[in-house]
Amino acid sequence: MSSARAKPALPTSLWWIRRDLRLTDNPALQAALRHGAVVPVFILDPAASGSRYHARAQRRQAFLYASLRSLDAELRARGSRLVVRTGRPAEVLAQLAAETQANGLFAEEDHSPYARRRDAAVQGVLPLTLTGGLTVHHPANVQKAAGGPYTVFTPFSKAWHALRRPTPADLEPAPARLPAVSPALASEPLPAGEAPADFPAGEAEARRRLERFLAGPIHAYAEGRNQLAEAGTSSLSPYFRFGLLSARTAAVAALEAAGRAPQPANGAGTWLTELIWREFYIAVLYHFPHVLQTAFNPNLRAIAWRTAPEDFAAWQAGRTGYPVVDAAMRQLAQTGWMHNRARMIAASFLVKDLLIDWRLGEQWFMEQLVDGDPAANNGGWQWTAGTGTDAAPYFRIFNPVLQSQKFDPAGRYLRRFVPELAAVPDEYLHAPWKMPPLIQHQVGCVIGRDYPTPIVDRAAVKARTLAAYKAGA
DNA sequence: TGAAATGTTGGGGCG
DNA sequence: ACGCCCCAACATTTC
Q1: How far is CA A424 from CA A228, A295, A411, A447, in A?
Q2: Of all nucleotides in the shown strands, which has a C1' nearest the CA of A458?
Q3: Which nucleotide has the shortest C1'-to-CA distance from A463?
Q4: Which residue in A49, A87, A269, A402 has its CB near the most CB atoms, within 10 A?
Q5: Residue A464: is its pLDDT beyond 60?
Q6: pLDDT at residue A262 above 70?
Q7: Strand B and A395 CB separated by under 7 Å
Q8: In chain A, which residues from 372 to 401 place their CB closer than 7 Å to nucleic acid strand C?
Q9: Under a CB-based contact definition with an 8 Å cutoff, are residues A338 and A369 in contact?
Q10: Does residue A350 carry a pLDDT above 70?
Q11: Is the pLDDT of residue A49 over 70?
């Protein structure tokens, strides 16, 4: 009699977690659950380094591991747990599929070149089902009417808006319970490491930050986002980087907030535009993966960058003698994050004032940033260098003194990250080399002794940069 | 999601 | 009343 036989096991699948460390609004998890029992898997991939900076991005790795521990706790609270394994994904997943009798494999699609190679290798071994979730709209769905990808932001943005807008009903709540994972299934411990102090790990923290942002700063975002010393940004970038918050959740929140406010150019609308910039650069990398190696603009691949290790080291260490550049670079080194306006200022200084290859700056940012994402980081650097899609023109050179006067008028950002300038009077703070020697001694900040002399004369280097771009074009 | 140089305009002080 | 100068504010151009 059939009743005497063992009940056939529920079909089982692997939920392969890569950069979607969340239970809320997770299409890959939902697809796995529709299939049957689910084994959540994270693979420590020694080759995930695909990139030269990966191994040195220790703060981002620590944030990832801490967030995985948090995810494991959330899974356990729902009757499941995280299974961690080390190795090449194709081999690890094949082994796990054999151990668990899984006949399904689900993951959120990642469009970076490394991820695509990795997933192609897995697909040669197992039927891998990729779902959306990294972006609101898949890069292949935001195309010109005549076909082909956009390379300018504004039309991309229009096409994005013309697609179906996500609504609250689209957001998949976190499952209250999850199928158990057999206690016999082995899991490795996660590497140690605490999340950076300014960025506590986990999905719940991402949610709290979103709520805090929606409760106030989002409405003043159009201006507030530019103030270096203010908490005017969402500070969600590391959470988007690892999918602790879905882009769709953020877009729904932005659309709701924008709808309530009367003006079209409101803070929420501006923030939504930033989310679309994120999707734009993800799409650019999807369609033009070579941007990680060279300039998007083929006419700007022959610029004679300077080889200037000492200048580069001064930039990295925040010792250029330009306070806002130094504050930015020290904020990065100390906290693993940099204000977006500061990223533009610091990047412009490296590329346009020091005439150092933007790829060196890109690599340094990837090593340091908790939120370091190849698409956004490359997009930002190519924009600044003027080599990218929809880029800043080559002659646009930020003046660090004007930028800091405009976006840190009280000097709070400068004094926080460059403490040796703390006693410098406001009037000289943004350009301390103009301080009369007597005042330098009075306030205990002698230029060249307590704070660096500017490593370049901006007025003089401008012509050099314009010439280099013209010759390299 | 510049900056700086140059040009234009218009108000106010002043003889 | 008028011309002249100064200069701030704004616009235009160039890199």
Answers
A1: 19, 41, 10, 11
A2: B3
A3: C15
A4: A269
A5: yes
A6: no
A7: yes
A8: 393, 395
A9: yes
A10: yes
A11: no
